[in-house]
Design a protein that fits this description.
34% of the residues lie in helices and 24% in strands. The strands form six sheets. A seven-stranded antiparallel beta sheet has the order 3-2-4-1-10-9-11. It has a six-stranded antiparallel beta sheet with strand order 5-6-7-8-12-13, with helices on one face. Bound molecules: iron/sulfur cluster. Iron/sulfur cluster binds next to helix 8 and helix 17.
Length: 478
């Protein structure tokens, strides 16, 4: 998971790029970068948070009215700056790109780029691979008379060559901003527009929360296989490229996106409450009703509120959170995750003491947080602890840019729910039934492969094992 932003403005955009990236910080904390164009490219990339990478002086240096920004989250622990974004090339055209997702046929595309176009992709950076593929297609066009149809043709050829998940924004020097999505629309990307005295300005962002902050009104999402080009005069051109079945990542609704974002026309916070209400019947079926429902702050909050509204137990805040520690899910190693759980959450004794407590989290992946929480709640006097997961059991890794780890690390990959319950030490364990989740998102058309094993791009077991090995080696992510 990464966050991307592209701004087509009429004045300097550096400050807005930096501020906009800060609103996407939850999507990646390992590296940040920006590139602007004013006749030349100006780039700044670094490791760490947006506030650590950019300083006031970069507003001066990153000149130009068009720009791209990226916050990176590295899968499997790789935090190399060389794999950070944006990436850019100067041949056959000045092109810069940011993307969010993960390419699943990286080696195959890299080999064919070298064999057919003599282009050597020397990093393990997916954005470079997509950019080089696009550039190789562009090279086949007559650049003196390059048309918008030519550009869309290059997008289609890129979509045919690259497998996996990608939402990308490409800055084409002097020509405009081009956004496109993979044929299934797995990762989010939204176009926003705002009026200024000089005329309309545009932005593409991973989430509407970023557009809200920058004063852009969300206009439309870049759907499955779609391409949108904003030309040098600010005209919008749309094209339906290679299209497969819609498979928007359902985990965006569960965990990744910020609660104030609107994805596929749905407010994320409301979606989480809906999922929480859907948990009422499996919680009731699990036996004695809880005395109190608490959330794992902050990602469990809306689910817990939804659950409490649909059953007889009250919701109370039962865990105090240290807000100055990063999200435990995206810490690179298990040991760091364990340490960060301990630092981050502490039970509020008076809320849980002597009670049967249902503690609601967004999901259970490795079980590290759950195990630690159960033991902390018991130590704070809880009589019984029922762990409630708003997501179904995560059983399969995600090859589309989310660190679900390998199957060996996913606690429910080869264990029954009761075995997971024993492993985390809880008295009860309730998961969202997969059928309930699928019913909630049937009309959106979502990917739920990490629960169901049904990969929208049709990966088989052998391909998955290869991707897991590659992930271990390179830590690619966008
Ligand atoms: S496998 Fe899971 S996390 Fe990955 S894209 Fe699909 S739903 Fe999202």
């Amino acid at each position: 998971m990464c966050g991307i932003l592209g701004i087509w403005g009429r004045d300097q955009v550096a400050a807005e790029l930096m501020l906009g990236l800060a609103t996407l910080q939850h999507r990646g904390q390992d590296a940040a970068g920006a590139i602007t164009f004013d006749g030349s490219f100006h780039v700044k990339i670094g490791r760490g948070l947006v506030s650590e990478v950019f300083a006031d002086k970069h507003q001066e240096r990153l000149r130009g009215p068009w720009g791209l920004g990226h916050v990176r989250y590295a899968t499997m622990g790789s935090t190399d700056v060389e794999d950070a974004q944006p990436v850019h090339v100067s041949y056959p055209y000045g092109l810069a790109m940011v993307h969010n997702g993960n390419v699943t046929n990286f080696d195959e595309v890299r080999e064919s780029l070298y064999a057919e176009h003599h282009r050597l992709v020397s990093t393990s950076n997916d954005a470079a691979l997509i950019l080089y593929t696009f550039a190789a297609e562009l090279e086949k066009c007559d650049l003196r008379s390059l048309s918008i149809l030519d550009l869309f043709g290059c997008v289609e050829a890129t979509q045919r060559a690259i497998a996996g998940a990608y939402s990308a924004v490409c800055l084409i020097a002097g020509r405009g901003l081009l956004a496109f999505a993979d044929p299934h629309g797995i990762r989010p990307l939204v176009l926003g527009r705002r009026e200024t005295e000089a005329g309309p300005e545009y932005a593409f962002a991973s989430e509407t929360t970023c557009l809200d902050f920058l004063g852009f009104e969300a206009v439309e999402e870049v759907g499955p296989g779609c391409a949108i080009f904003i030309d040098g005069q600010g005209e919008i051109h749309r094209h339906q490229g290679v299209r497969g079945r819609s498979a928007f990542c359902v985990f965006e609704f569960i965990y990744f996106a910020r609660e104030d974002s609107v994805l596929r026309g749905r407010v994320v916070a409301e979606e989480r409450e809906r999922m929480g209400r859907a948990l009422a019947s499996p919680v009731a079926a699990a036996g004695t009703p809880p005395d109190v429902i608490i959330d794992v702050p902050a990602s469990g909050y809306f689910f817990a509120v939804g659950l409490a509204s649909a059953c007889d137990a009250p919701f109370r805040r039962g865990l105090a959170k240290n807000h100055h520690i990063g999200r435990s899910f995206i810490q690179p190693t298990d040991e760091e995750r364990r340490r960060s759980v301990r630092l981050k959450l502490n039970p509020i004794r008076g809320v849980v003491d002597g009670l049967r407590v249902a503690v609601v989290d967004d999901s259970i992946v490795r079980g590290v947080t759950s195990r630690r929480l159960v033991s902390l709640l018991r130590a704070a006097g809880a009589r019984e602890v029922v762990m409630v997961s708003a997501a179904p059991p995560v059983r399969y890794p995600c090859p589309y840019g989310i660190d679900m780890s390998t199957r060996d690390e996913i606690i429910a990959a080869r264990q029954s729910p009761d075995a997971v319950r024993r492993l985390i030490g809880a008295d009860g364990l309730v998961y969202q039934p997969l059928e309930s989740l699928q019913a909630l998102y049937r009309d959106v058309g979502c990917c739920d492969a990490c629960f169901s094993g049904e990969y929208p791009t049709g990966l088989d077991a052998e391909a998955l094992t290869r991707i897991e090995r590659e992930k271990d080696r390179s830590g690619r992510a966008g």
